[in-house]
Amino acid sequence: MARDELRSTVERVGDRFSLGEYEIDAYLAVLEHGTLTASEIADHTEIPQPRVYDTVRSLNDRGLVELQESRPMKVVAIDPGEAFEDVEAALGEMIDGLESRYTAPARETEAVTLVKSRSTILRYLEEIIESAEYELALSLTPDLLGRFAEDLRAATDAGVSVDLLVAPSGGAPPADEFDYGAVATTARTRRGITTPVIAVADGTYSIYATQDALRDDRDRYGVIFNRSALGFLVSGFFGTVLWTTTEETVAEDGEGRPYPRRYASIRRCVKDLLDAGGEFYATIDGRDVESGRSRVVSGRVSEVSFEVSEEVASLTLETEEGAVAVGGRVAALEDVEAHEIRIGRDEPPAYEE
User: Fold this and answer.
1) What is the mean pLDDT of the chain?
2) What SUPFAM superfamilies does this protein's entry cite (predicted)?
């Protein structure tokens, strides 16, 4: 579609839907009753009697109603399928024309974005869930759990480890009525609408939003860390503040995933090692705490450290260079800050760049 034709189509669609409050009220009243007189429209709406005639003539000019010049004048509804047939066709042409000119915005790998649209927040939530390759941390409302249940089932079926928090707990579906084990590796509930909505995929791609952001009558905002190293801030907040203050564990299946496994969260990794028991080997992709240079280490896991509060977690590897202590993001006491952890049973998993 040529540029001038596209502009004309957009203007035509815009003009057709440019209805005022009185026109909308009158149109809906006529649609509901089929045929009304001017005085009846005034009775069924809050349109002042002197304004009714101008209002229905405007609707007639747009082809939305038919006027029968009788005494009294009757306003007759036109089938919406017929009334909007040309608009529907023009709208389809307009969308095709706009899409042909659409250029997808480039997303910087370190972008941090503030969004203020409910639909945008929902779109990012869906995208983050679908993008996870091996680990998901989620804090969802009961409504969002229902909305994304199928996506979460697909993720768990694909072997993604899912830590799911549902809040407020009072609205969460009961465990005997909802199969939490099908949508999460571990699922917990938390009290209060103060719990934010969070999604973190593989420790990097993440979103933080208030529950108010999903209500139309409140200020709405969400922060997107688009595959940014800063995503660990959201992940750390989830693991230390939210996950440790939950009310009830409604599903837990630490044995369901095969080895080798991949982790972004060292807390999740260490907890699984303690729960499973036995000998483990690890390959760590991260950076040296002192020099800041990228560093890959591998060896047998000789020691794990994990506080009951889940605020501290680390592990030690026996490598060819000796013992190496590994911590999570912003580690200071350990030798290596882990970005991705691979765990195997018989030997260190292969490192893949």
Assistant:
1) 84
2) TrmB C-terminal domain-like, Winged helix' DNA-binding domain
